[in-house]
Amino acid sequence: MSKSPVDALVAARKSGHGLPAGFYHDAEIFERDLQQIFLAGWQYAGHVSQLPKIGDYLLFEMAGESVIVVRSEAGYRALLNVCRHRGSRICQQQQGQAKRLVCPYHGWSYALSGELLAAAELSDEVDRSRLGLKRVALDEIEGLLFINFAAKPSPFRILRHRMGGALKAHGLADLKVAHSIDYSINANWKLAVENYCECYHCRPSHKAYSKGHQLAVPRDQWLEGQAQANQLAKASGFSQMVDGTWLNAPKAGLECQYAHYPLVNGHVTGSEDGQPVAPLIGSLQAPVALATDFQLGPNLFGLIYSDHAVLYRFLPVSVAETVCQVSWLVRAGAREGQDYALPKLIWLWDTTTREDKTIIEQNQLGVSSRYYRPGPFTSMEVFASRFVDWYLARLDGQNHDVIAGR
Amino acid sequence: MSKSPVDALVAARKSGHGLPAGFYHDAEIFERDLQQIFLAGWQYAGHVSQLPKIGDYLLFEMAGESVIVVRSEAGYRALLNVCRHRGSRICQQQQGQAKRLVCPYHGWSYALSGELLAAAELSDEVDRSRLGLKRVALDEIEGLLFINFAAKPSPFRILRHRMGGALKAHGLADLKVAHSIDYSINANWKLAVENYCECYHCRPSHKAYSKGHQLAVPRDQWLEGQAQANQLAKASGFSQMVDGTWLNAPKAGLECQYAHYPLVNGHVTGSEDGQPVAPLIGSLQAPVALATDFQLGPNLFGLIYSDHAVLYRFLPVSVAETVCQVSWLVRAGAREGQDYALPKLIWLWDTTTREDKTIIEQNQLGVSSRYYRPGPFTSMEVFASRFVDWYLARLDGQNHDVIAGR
Amino acid sequence: MSKSPVDALVAARKSGHGLPAGFYHDAEIFERDLQQIFLAGWQYAGHVSQLPKIGDYLLFEMAGESVIVVRSEAGYRALLNVCRHRGSRICQQQQGQAKRLVCPYHGWSYALSGELLAAAELSDEVDRSRLGLKRVALDEIEGLLFINFAAKPSPFRILRHRMGGALKAHGLADLKVAHSIDYSINANWKLAVENYCECYHCRPSHKAYSKGHQLAVPRDQWLEGQAQANQLAKASGFSQMVDGTWLNAPKAGLECQYAHYPLVNGHVTGSEDGQPVAPLIGSLQAPVALATDFQLGPNLFGLIYSDHAVLYRFLPVSVAETVCQVSWLVRAGAREGQDYALPKLIWLWDTTTREDKTIIEQNQLGVSSRYYRPGPFTSMEVFASRFVDWYLARLDGQNHDVIAGR
Fold first, then answer.
1. B210-268 pLDDT, tens digit each
2. Which residues in A lie closer than 8 A to residue B406 (C-beta atoms)?
3. Do B85 and B103 touch, CB atoms closer than 8 A?
4. How many angstroms separate the CA of residue B360 from the nearest CA in chain C?
């Protein structure tokens, strides 16, 4: 889009206030969001535990794009799920196992690493070496696989350098995905992220959550709370707060943060009664009444307890449709039914996410009014407000990461 | 939109003929319709009988807008259903009862009159007196509540002055809404109104209706019929014909008319057998074989019989989607099951409206053809033709009523 | 649309490769497709056997247009299914019988030949002779009825001259439509036609089809196969190959071709076991192991066996939605249940078309990727490649055929 309309909207934004309505339903803004953020930055695609064997694959799908994340003989690969012949989707199941990637249309077959292996009747004049499946960048941090559509991706090592140590202590790489749910939310992705970024709404909206979790509080008390939390964290061998978040992210997808906060009322984990629902993770010998919060990129949020971790990923489908994928991770060796029961494991965040879906959709309806004017953020919405500042900077910024040929 | 495309379409219209196709499916024309007519004029929102107690509210919803019409200690109020904090919808039920209007998202609470009462952790530097729910103008005529989104609404007193006396004689303020149905019609709102404005289609399309109602007839006979009707009306203490309709409406929402026509074949009301289906209304001592027709604004039509009234409201949802709300009103004290039976009360107009829904949707399909050319109106379509003339004048006209900030 | 965007896309196309993605999802390109191809050329509308009696009609529907194809006293007629009064659809059933065409809205009635017969209360000043239903051009070749929306249609006699003789030998005019199915495909019409134009995909995708049909093969072997086929054809009194297809079509709708290929493995028709499923057609005394392939216009394909014929028609609904109508024709006098059984008759092409629907939809998903780049056609995709060349020439070409007033 011509830059001016965005400039006008950016200018229209009153500092300390929410975004003008246009950012939540303008189709050109949405395409800009995709180009500047989602197609330019690192996106969480899955956990290594989901691809135990060579040939195991899963699909990453976002805004009409589909990527095959596969474990090849040579390691993990991300390949565009589009045949180089006529453009058909190759893999059609969300997860699977394959020796080769064979297009169901005309039978062109590709190695797990993407090279074209067979294409009947294709002229010898055609250079097959140039017809492998398009590679998408892939990297890993503590068992978390990330992909990047950019032609020149931001250097992932920066993220690993900043966050690797902190995440290692929790043994993230030694977990497995016990369960995962996709929640379809009829709202713009930013309303969903803003909702995740503040707990001002927890008291009125999340009864279950509020029982065991400290509600976000004014900035000063919040820092206090984190001081105590960091004590507990230190004693448990965890890192201190890492705050490289938002505004100082050098490039798309390198935003990150890591922090702790104490649980309340004798709760030691995020469950209905606050008691453990799975075996302890990492090197913990005993549960610690702590929640560890982290974030990798603008749309992946993690919550680590003593016995399990929860990952929250927000992916846009269209300007007013977002998929929130929630994954519950437990120690790799834990056996369902014996060491943990799914209903108890997922209860808290399934309940909370269903509540959020409703809230966020009602928010989208409201900001669509011609007469909506953004209101002021409160002191309990510091992170939502920072997200908005970060977003405007990123949206407005030059971006050299967009894939070649776009 | 730039004015020229509309000018071109207006110019393309052949007088005495229907509207060119563009007016029924062009998205920019639709937005113009909203700005010049629906968001600039007075809209029927409900009947006082629906809000008997302080705290009772109902929602008015149109083209993505939602307004809370509530009975406060200080009287009826219309408030934009959008929280001043993050923009969430506040009331989510179509009707309800509340002591305060509390946003379900972050708990901001508002008085029934709209003032902001509580907003936790909101900085004291923020002027709360400026954060009340946005008021939408509201006024009343004989129990009928109207709202207006305009910053400077047209003076409603003009409408009350013109129509108040005529409506009073029928005791509209002393009725109650016995039943209401929303019919979703997949067609542009103008095709729905044009359909209501002529009875040329009644003979082929409405068998039930035609049994008891005089079909529209050529202009001269029509005036004859009204002469007789006015005799009956006079005897019953009703007003004579009031015709301030369409073209001479000074501003948006002030269009009006009021007229009578005789029922036929010994029918005294609009029911399957033509016999009363509810207690007499107003000051009538005996049924009178008369139908009284009135209109307030471009999209509210009323039909008054001796024993009940029917209100027809057309509201646009999108360029090719309209909601027709039909309400049946009876004397306030009448008891369902004893004084009236719903099935008999609603039979005629429920049947007729279902027939019209099909007709109008087939009309939308036809005018969407690239080869459709508007045809000539007949002498039995005088009012539809006048509606079209009025519409073009209104659409084209300058409009100083649009809400501030738009 | 301004021509330049198309020029850019045309320029972007690499010869010997598929079309750039824009051609499959750009709304302006789609409107261009309609104007240059579907609304400008001849479209197959039905077979004379579907309209045995005067007053029998069927509807032709495409991209929002609806045409009544009716058998009048004066012969077959194609009439726009839009009333000249208010624009309502007149016929609402896909097939029917009528003495007159009466609009259900206001009762205007038209003769089967389109003249306006009755319009109550229409002013005498209006010239009724100018208010007949809009005629759409109609012509016939061997029992196949074609219509054309153009104001100055391409001369159909050219098509009849080229193809009439070839089709006559198969007795197409003496067949009847035994069954017809509309398959809704969520993809652009061109992906559906490209799929029909090549059999490179038959081996991987169509097990059933491949049992009895020669798979398309490299150009040279293909010509060999046709040589043999032409021998068989000659012996059976059929014409030799007629190839007037694509590039040398003088005007929209006159594209055509006619060819034969031998069936394999002792199959003599297109059925599950390769044995006849209906009485022999045309003047055949014995089955011949031959499939005869023909095409009339860009989107009607025919396949003629010794005992039945199959017609394939592709019509666009929207840029990414196409209806593929498959019709099975048998000798007119054949009696269902005695001379043929529907399940056996339709089995092969119903199975194959369901497979193609899936393939084509997966293709549409893939080409919608921002990173899709067209790949090279193989030697087994000669006809798909020729279709693409033809399409670009037609899309780009001047077109004097568009209906008056457009």
1. 777 766 566 667 777 778 888 889 999 898 777 665 556 777 788 899 989 889 878 99
2. 370
3. yes
4. 8
Chain B hits for C81, Cβ within 8 Å: 366
What is the CATH classification number for the domain harbouring A196? 3.90.380.10
pLDDT digits (tens, 9 = 90+) for C80-109: 999 999 999 999 999 999 999 999 999 999
The alpha carbon of residue C20 is apart from the nearest alpha carbon of chain B, in Å, by: 28
Under a CB-based contact definition with an 8 Å cutoff, are residues C18 and C144 in contact?
Answer: no
Q: For residue B8, give the H/E element and its range.
A: helix B3-12
Angle between helices B382-396 and B3-12 (to 10 degrees): 160
Shortest distance between the Cα of C399 and any Cα of chain B, in A, equals 17
Is residue C228 located within the same domain as residue C364? yes
Chain B, 75-104: which have a CB under 8 Å from a chain A CB?
80-89, 92, 104
Instruction: Specify whether B240 is located in the same domain as B205.
Output: yes
Q: C293: which 2 tokens?
A: 């392939």
How far B377 CA sits from the closest chain C CA (Å)? Answer: 7
Q: What pLDDT score does B405 carry?
A: 30
- C13 pLDDT more than 90: no
Three-state SS at B63: coil
- Give me the sign of the Cα torsion angle A346, A352, A354, A356: negative
pLDDT band at A216 (very low <50, low <70, confident <90, very high): low
Q: Does C27 touch chain A (CB under 8 A)?
A: no
Given an 8 Å threshold on Cβ–Cβ distance, is A18 in contact with B86?
A: yes
Q: Give the pLDDT mean for C218-246.
A: 77
Q: Which one of B84, B86, B126 would you mutate to disrupt binding with A, by most A Cβ within 10 Å of its Cβ?
A: B86
Rounded average pLDDT over A33-48: 96
Q: Do residues C93 and C175 share a domain?
A: no
Tens-digit pLDDT profile for residues C112-144: 999 999 999 999 999 999 999 999 999 999 999
| Closest alpha carbon within chain A to C369 | A65
pTM assigned to the model: 0.93
**With an 8 Å Cβ cutoff, are B88 and A362 in contact?**
yes
With an 8 Å Cβ cutoff, are C87 and B379 in contact?
no
Which chain C residues touch A65 with a CB distance below 8 Å? 369-371
Q: Which of C363, C370, C378 sits opposite A88 (nearest CB)?
A: C363
Asked if residue B244 belongs to a domain, the reply is yes
Q: Is residue C24 part of a domain?
A: no
CA distance C58 to C65: 14
Q: Are A30 and A5 in contact (CB under 8 A)?
A: no
Tell me which amino acid residue C311 is: L
The answer to whether residue A16 is domain-embedded is no
Mean pLDDT value across residues C248-273: 86
ipTM, 2 decimals? 0.91
Q: Do B224 and B183 fall into the same domain?
A: yes
Phi/psi of residue C147, nearest 5 degrees: -125, 165
Q: How far is C219 from chain B (nearest CA, A)?
A: 43
Residue of chain B minimizing CA distance to A360: B88
- What CA–CA distance (Å, rounded) separates B68 from B48? 14
What is the C-alpha separation between B89 and B312, in angstroms, rounded?
27
Q: What is the pLDDT of residues A303-361, one digit of tens each?
A: 999 999 999 999 999 999 999 999 999 999 999 999 999 999 999 999 999 999 999 99
B405 to chain A, any CB pair closer than 8 A? The answer is yes
Q: What is the mean pLDDT of chain A?
A: 91
Identify the domain containing residue C54 by its residue range: 43-138
- Measured CA to CA, the distance from residue A292 to residue A290 in angstroms comes to 6
Q: For chain B, list the contacting chains (3+ Cβ pairs, <8 Å).
A: A, C
